[in-house]
Write a structure and sequence with these properties.
This protein is of the alpha+beta class and 374 residues long. The protein has 14 helices and ten strands.
Length: 374
């Protein structure tokens, strides 16, 4: 693994996707030697990062992720990128083949190259729960990751840090500020019903929260443990990918979602007994609050997507997704059956959204000189 420093180049050049000859030279610069001639495929263009897949013999062999400038221009993103080394050494993430804070052949851009992993079908993940618990334990117990993610926090920050409080605040802000503002901009009066549902769920969750136990530790959490982010390496060992959301949090941020989605309810305690960093009872107790809150955040994501729907199919999918995640949160909170009023509100919201005409009538936009008929 090689690390090199070179002068930076123009930001205009760095914003454009790299040319494939430059990517071939990058492998040589970092002393990475594919077994056969590589082929490069651009798979994503983020605001400050591009990702390329490197195929060898027609199969994914590695991934190249680079920032749109040197490490010095994106210190936070570079720190996050560099954590790939710690994740690999902790036997959590893919093998790091090479890394540079400012690649010469990429015009000074910071870059990391990681080995490709093999996808894992959902049913196979469900059969490897004990191994997954060990994987989470290695991630959550990784001291270098904890130190890196904590370096900007003061002692007072540590004392005041509460992931569950932050998640409550985030949920409230997303629904009552971001989603409400956006729905009102596009004349979706259904926001009054949606926020009434969210308010009732939050009130119920606050009551539950007062009776749940505390785990008392903060860990480096993946924060998106869906089965698509679990893969296997060449030896067949379980690994994770896509650490964009890696941050300090409560262990239940990973454990709660994973158990809810992939492990039968009556096996939750058994699975948590294989996780050595927290008491299983405390985790199960905290899941009663954390998982419904996460579902409400996912519903808020789809509420935002709804207003950007480009066709009827996308509109209906977003509307049904809002119902799926809000209803899922409610069913976790009320496992013996939803209160009649809450059930009626959920049904009314979905029915009303599906009945909306599409395409939606255009509205006046403050930054536009034209006013179209509503």
């Amino acid at each position: 693994m090689t690390e090199r420093r070179t002068p930076t180049r123009s930001s205009h050049t760095q914003r454009n996707p790299a040319l494939t000859p430059a990517l071939a030279l990058l492998l040589r610069e970092l002393d990475i030697q594919p077994p056969h001639d590589p082929a490069f495929h651009l798979v994503s263009e983020w605001a400050a990062k591009h990702v390329w897949r490197v195929d060898v013999a027609g199969k994914p062999w590695a991934y190249v992720r680079y920032l749109l400038g040197p490490a010095t221009s994106y210190p936070d993103r570079w720190r996050h990128l560099r954590l790939g080394v710690e994740l690999f050494e902790a036997h959590v993430g893919p093998r790091v083949l090479g890394i540079s804070p400012a690649s010469e052949v990429l015009g000074g851009r910071a870059v990391i190259v990681e080995a490709a992993l093999d996808p894992l079908p959902r049913e196979q993940l469900e059969d490897r729960v004990e191994e997954a618990m060990g994987l989470f334990a290695r991630l959550h117990g990784c001291a270098p990751l904890l130190e890196a993610l904590s370096e900007d926090l003061t002692e007072a920050d540590h004392l005041a840090f509460s992931p569950i409080v932050n998640l409550f605040h985030e949920t409230q802000e997303r629904w009552f500020e971001a989603v409400t503002g956006r729905w009102l901009e596009v004349s979706l009066g259904q926001i009054s019903v949606a926020t009434e549902i969210v308010f009732e769920l939050l009130q119920a969750l606050k009551s539950v929260d007062q009776g749940t136990g505390r785990i008392g530790i903060v860990v480096p959490a993946h924060n998106d443990p869906n089965h698509g982010n679990f893969m296997t390496n060449r030896q067949g060992a379980l690994r994770m990918i896509d650490f964009e959301g890696l941050a300090l949090s409560n262990p239940v941020a990973d454990l709660g979602i994973f158990l809810t989605w992939y492990v039968d309810h009556d096996r939750h305690y058994e699975a948590l007994a294989k996780y050595p960093l927290a008491d299983p009872v405390a985790v199960l107790s905290r899941m009663r609050v954390w998982v419904p809150l996460r579902y409400m955040n996912i519903a808020a994501h789809w509420a935002g997507r709804l207003t950007r729907a480009r066709d009827r199919e996308a509109w209906e999918f977003a509307a049904l997704s809002i119902d799926e995640w809000l209803r899922g949160a409610a069913e976790l909170l009320f496992p013996r059956g939803l209160p009649g009023r809450l059930s009626s509100l959920l049904s009314a919201l979905t029915t009303s959204l599906l009945a909306e005409p599409f395409p939606r009538p255009a509205r006046f936009r403050p930054d536009s000189a034209e006013v179209e008929e509503a």
